[in-house]
Amino acid sequence: MSGVGVFGGTFDPIHHGHLRPALELRQALDLDEVRFVPCRQPPHRAAPVASPQARAEMVELAIKGVKGFTLDRRELYREGPSYTLDTLAALRQEMPDERLVLLLGTDAFLGLPGWHGWRALLELAHIAVAHRPGWSLEDGTGLGELTRDRLVAEPGGLAQAPAGRIALVAVTQLEISATAVRAAASAGEDIHFLVPEVVREYIEKTGCYRQR
Listing from the earlier edge strand, what are the strands of the sheet with 69-71? Predict the structure, then answer.
């Protein structure tokens, strides 16, 4: 069964801390595609600094030429809060038999009970949690009820169904913060090696994080 990963976020800006784990998840889960889905209006945090168009353009530049990486702009065109549930529902309607995998970092997964319609997410997709080696759900996640019967022993366990299971995938964790990147760019500091070179050039050229 082929598979599509769904990787959402503000990507304000996209950086190597997003890109490397996404690549490792695609490989570990044997996904044909990872869709980067920039959100327009995050429900649980302040509005992004860069415009929707700028963030989408930076994602497009960052993933150009990377096998299996694509940009999905649907949330940028949708009014109101960018709920992941709505995005997965739309994708499921388009791909009723596809294996969909929602790709989350550990912090996002631990905050899942605060998401809109979070219990329904697994009716639409699997969830793959990118974590650092040695981390486990026993670290006090508050998600025991959800994961007790859903967790697979190996990432390959997601290949047996189109949705409904949870996998933990150890990936390289790059401690890069989009907040820190924005602050450095705003202050005119060098952001080489934090973001792809094409993204650094875009930020410098457009001044999208320049102090106003």
Answer: 69-71, 33-38, 3-9, 99-105, 126-131, 166-170
Amino acid sitting at position 161: A
**By C-alpha distance, which of 27, 26, 28, 21 is closest to 5?**
26
Which one, of 91, 82, 93, lies nearest residue 6 by Cα? 91
pTM of the prediction? 0.94
The residue among 187, 203, 205 whose CA lies nearest residue 195 is 203
Q: Is 16 helix (H, G, I), strand (E, B) or coil?
A: helix
Tokens representing 140?
Answer: 């006090």
Q: What is the largest CA-CA distance in the chain?
A: 51
**Rounded distance between C-alpha atoms, residue 111 and residue 137, angstroms:** 13
Q: 98-119, pLDDT tens digit by residue?
A: 999 999 998 899 889 889 999 8
Q: What is the CATH number of domain 3-206?
A: 3.40.50.620
Q: What are the DSSP E strand ranges found in 43-202?
A: 69-71, 99-105, 126-131, 166-170
- From the centroid of its chain, how far is CA 92? 17
